[in-house]
Amino acid sequence: MFARAARLVHQAAALPKRPLLDLANKQHGHLRNSRFLCYEAQRPLVFDVATTEEFEEHVLRSTIPVIVDFHADWCGPCKMLGPRLEQKVQGREGAVLMAKVNIDEAGDLADEFRVSAVPTVIGFQNGEVVAEFQGMIDDDQIDEFLDQVADVPAAEQ
C-alpha cells in the first residue's frame, strides 16, 4: 500500500505546476473567456445587490451585459420567474450576468429605476438600459430578452 501511495505522489509531482484552468484555456479556446469571468469580474453569474455602490460597481461598470431582477420576498410571480431567469443566465455561460435586487432591502434602487411593480427585469449593457419587462413571461420570451441584452442576433443561435 505504501508503494502505491508513493507512486501516486510521484505521478502528482509530474503534473504541470500551472493552474488547470490555464491548461483548459490552451486546450479549448472556447473556455478562454471563462477565466476572465472568474478573475476579472470576481463574482458568480448570478449575484445579489443590496446597495447603490454595489449596483454601480457590479452592474453599471460591468463590461459584461447584466440583467437586474427587481423582486420581493412576498411576491409569488417573483418566486416563479427568478429561478427560470437564473437557469437561463447560467446556460449562457458568462455571456450575460444576473443581479438580484430585493426592493424591500434596496428601495432606493427601485425608486431610481422607477420600478412600480415586481417582478421587473431591466437589461444593462455598458451601463445603459437596453431592454426591460414587467411581470411573468414564458421561456421563449426570456431567451429573446437575453438575446436583446447580450446583443446576439437570433440567426447566431
TrEMBL record:
InterPro entries: Thioredoxin (IPR005746), Thioredoxin-like_sf (IPR036249), Thioredoxin_CS (IPR017937), Thioredoxin_domain (IPR013766). The keyword Electron transport applies. One of its GO terms (molecular function) is protein-disulfide reductase activity. It comes from the Eukaryota. Keywords: Disulfide bond, Electron transport, Redox-active center, Transport. GO terms for biological process: cell redox homeostasis. One of its GO terms (cellular component) is mitochondrion. Gene3D superfamilies: Glutaredoxin. Residues 12-151 form the Thioredoxin domain. The keyword Transmembrane helix does not apply. Belongs to the thioredoxin family. This is Thioredoxin domain-containing protein. It comes from Mesorhabditis spiculigera. The lineage of its organism: Eukaryota, Metazoa, Ecdysozoa, Nematoda, Chromadorea.
